[in-house]
User: What shape does this take?
Amino acid sequence: MDLLLKNIGLLATPVGSAARKGAGQRDILLIQDAMVGVKDGEIAYAGPTDESLKSADVFDCGGRLVTPGLVDAHTHLVFGGWRQKELALKLDGVPYLDILKAGGGILSTVEHTRAASEAELVAKGKALLSEMLSLGVTTCEAKSGYGLNTQCELKQLRIIRSLDKAQPVDIVPTFMGAHAFPKEYAGNRNGYVEHLLTEMLPAVVGEGLAEFCDVFCETAVFTLDESRRILLEAAKLGLSPKVHADEIDPIGGAEMAADVNAVSAEHLIQTSDGGIRALADKDVVAVLLPATSFYLDKPFARARDMVDAGVAVAVATDFNPGSSPSLNMQLAMNLACMKYKLTPAETLTAVTLNGAAAIRRAGSCGSLEVGKQADLVVWDAEDLEYIFYRYGSNLVHTVVKKGDKICLS
Ligand code: NIG
Ligand code: FE
Assistant: This one.
């Protein structure tokens, strides 16, 4: 073994290489007095303490809780500027979509992202990723969508690729040119959709810059038909569909996501019973974003109904400068427990294995099992309930990423 983590008070992990749903979401493996052994960056042993295991590098976990590294399956990580000036408007009750319609919101971040240099965006991205890592995140997804022209969408995606190489957190890239209509195409929706399909998408695919294509399917943003058209064309070119669905209005985004065989549907605040059934029938992972409900002061998605209906539920941050300025997965976990009424075990699965499934990484991370990447968190906690109970503090003691110990406190 290259590294042996001993004296683990409690090892808690979901099991398997696919999303867990229904009762399976809370059926996690719990081992008291455990050990994890690492060889070549992968887990070589995860089980009860076995005194015969040896390594030159032994790390004493001091009786603490160990879980898989957190997977943040929905972020808008690379952007110029911030939007704290919108706080006052929000407090005055101005709706999110009205701010966007007036040229603010996403469009103001587009201006700042276009104006920012690559070096600036890389430096900002590195700092954000280092904060994410210190909070326990070992893998995340990152969407483009603040360029809204070919040049700047490619710039964002190339930055995501360099950031992936430059620091320990693995980043999975998603093309989201369909995040809003840029001002150059005001009043010409069709023109932008054509531009996206004939220019942006082939350029992104040509450079191999994305694995997924996402669309903001919403009132006054992309219609169901526009979203379907974009996602089907992207799928033909090899990008798997994801959908921002039913975030603000229940326009049938979840049903459409199921229809195009999306890997995941995200937000789902307003999803109907029919939408929940459609997700369950087609095995679409529901990526729920409780920090967005909190910050937009909106209802919380019907996570309990979804789990009970057999939908695999993941929980992520939606980190972005407008609707979710927090990158703290521990906050998202706490909100999931308190507001979605998911149990600690269900929530653990939601932020590890099911998050990994939402970005097609369930075969390599998301659980502590032999052969998976050695991505794990040692928590300043003696049991699983404690990390949901002591909300507001960073309870990470140590992160291990591909077998490397990081952020030792
Ligand atoms: O997931 N809904 C669309 N996109 C983001 C918000 C982006 C922004 O406001 O800048 C979201 O909430
Ligand atoms: Fe989002």
About this structure: Residues 87 and 107 are 16 Å apart (CA to CA). The pocket of N-(iminomethyl)-L-glutamic acid (ligand 1) is lined by residues 76, 105-106, 109, 216, 244, 247, 292, 318, 320-323 (CB under 6 Å). The chain has 15 helices and 16 strands.
